[in-house]
Amino acid sequence: MNPISILLLGLAMSTDAFAAALGKGAAMARPTLVQALRVGLIFGVVEAITPVIGWLIGSAASSYVKAYDHWIAFVLLGALGAHMIWKALTEDDEADEAEASADRHGNLVTLALTGLATSIDAMAVGVGLAFVNVPILVVAGVIGACTFTMVTLGVMAGRALGAMIGRRAELVGGVILILVGAAILYEHLSGAAG
């Protein structure tokens, strides 16, 4: 993976958390920068750890599927991207509003669980990345940094933008995941052909 693909992957992985942060920011009375940084840090750390866990799981199986690894990465990233697009187009906004109002300020455990829920896809991406030659710690760091930034911005912008952007961010993230998967497949197939 080239640096641009890694950055796009980091941004795509942060869109779930960004959408959640918009909701969180919209639910908070007037989020301060310190609150936004705290939420961003929790989400960023969780989002950085989960692809490494997935990568470790995938690495254990990679020797068995070496010949098909690029296809596995393509299918996993494509399926995750399609799932994100589907969620963005079909989830109920009323359920999101009820969840946001149930926990106006949230504690550390609630934030960590929300961060984990939005990072399950990053774990699956980590599994897929185990089948291609990538520096997983760099990728995890980029994913964590992107998530930290996007969540911090999402909390601060949540009040004003939550209703307008939330679903679109997840939709764009899904498209980016599909494109990154296609780029991995293209790089492998063009390298094999060359």
Q: How would you portray this structure in words?
A:
- With 194 residues, this protein is an all-alpha fold.
- It has one domain (3-189).
- Helices cover 86% and strands 0% of the residues.
- It has 6 helices and no strands.
- It has helices at 3-27, 33-62, 69-90, 93-102, 108-129, 136-193.
User: What is the residue-mean pLDDT, rounded to a whole number?
Assistant: 78
- Radius of gyration, whole Å: 17 Å
Profile the largest sheet: none
Quote the beta fraction: under 5%
User: Could you give the count of β-strands?
Assistant: 0
Structure in a nutshell:
The chain is an all-alpha fold and 194 residues long.
Secondary structure elements and pairings:
Blueprint: H1 3-27, H2 33-62, H3 69-90, H4 93-102, H5 108-129, H6 136-193
What descriptors fit this protein?
mainly alpha; elongated; 194 residues
